[in-house]
Amino acid sequence: MDFNMKKLASDAGIFFTRAVQFTEEKFGQAEKTELDAHFESLLARADSTKNWTEKILRQTEVLLQPNPSARVEEFLYEKLDRKVPSRVTNGELLAQYMAEAASELGPTTPYGKTLIKVAEAEKRLGAAERDFIHTASINFLTPLRNFLEGDWKTISKERRLLQNRRLDLDASKARLKKAKAAEAKATLWNDEVDKAEQELRVAQTEFDRQAEVTRLLLEGISSTHVNHLRCLHEFVESQTTYYAQCYRHMLDLQKQLGSSQGAIFPGTFVGTTEPTSPTLSSTSPTTAAATMPMGPSMADLAPPGEAALRLEEVAPPASGTRKARVLYDYEAADSSELALLADELITVYSLPGMDPDWLIGERGNKKGKVPVTYLELLS
Question: Is the full-model pTM beyond 0.85?
Fold first, then answer.
């Protein structure tokens, strides 16, 4: 009991001494040991890494799960070390509603058939989203959380210890200074000076040791950046895969709807009013061009065994012409096609029997085939 009481008293005395030293430093009444410029730079980089990691983590969580209530629920499950229950994605829920609507409104009607087709596509989109969220959580969010909850807590703990060692060092310097000042007035303070010098040597040793430990941890932030860089690449890969799947699913749906639209609405356009984007590539413009959706050749316009369509004989229908905005530059493959420049407006229309991936485009007195995937059809 006596030992514990003495230890508590000693700890209280150390805490009080540190508090006095810290307060006097704030008011400019005591000297403060400054860390070297390199050490301060390491501290600043560590703080910046922690702050930006927190922001990136929180915003990525919002991206993957926009519902704040769901995020809180997932956070509680993680803290309780329990598996987060599987949750239906918005796409899957929409698919369910569409399928139920088709069943009730008539699955054999044109509207019901289309609802079923769109529901199947939305279900695939929802499954792709679920896979993306799962992959991004494991490969990106988890490493960021591990840094904040593991490495950063260790760094923060050692920094607090370093701060305490610095306060002890500066307090020892102050006591030695006072002892020497008193010694100059009387010879009775020799023992106090020796004691203060001994305390200063011990405090300096402990400070130097703690500074080295903290420095090593701070220099480890470089390894953290390398790890986060790798995780960032994996996040981009998973996001690229997700959007590629979405593009492929929607392109398939567009073709399905396009093939049925002509039968339901004769004389109208085959295609969609929304643009389809080419697959993105991070390698080179040549690779990007290679992945751009391309339409069929001129021979695809003409039925087998018949001559190709003569553009000079083509006249726009009385109804059905529309304006379209060009999404990408397009170089005509032959004289039957119309070259396009991004962002220009042209008039387009379809002809009976044309391939659904192509339209006839007119710009001034020029006329030719244009690929639908390069256009945004305007209302």
Answer: no
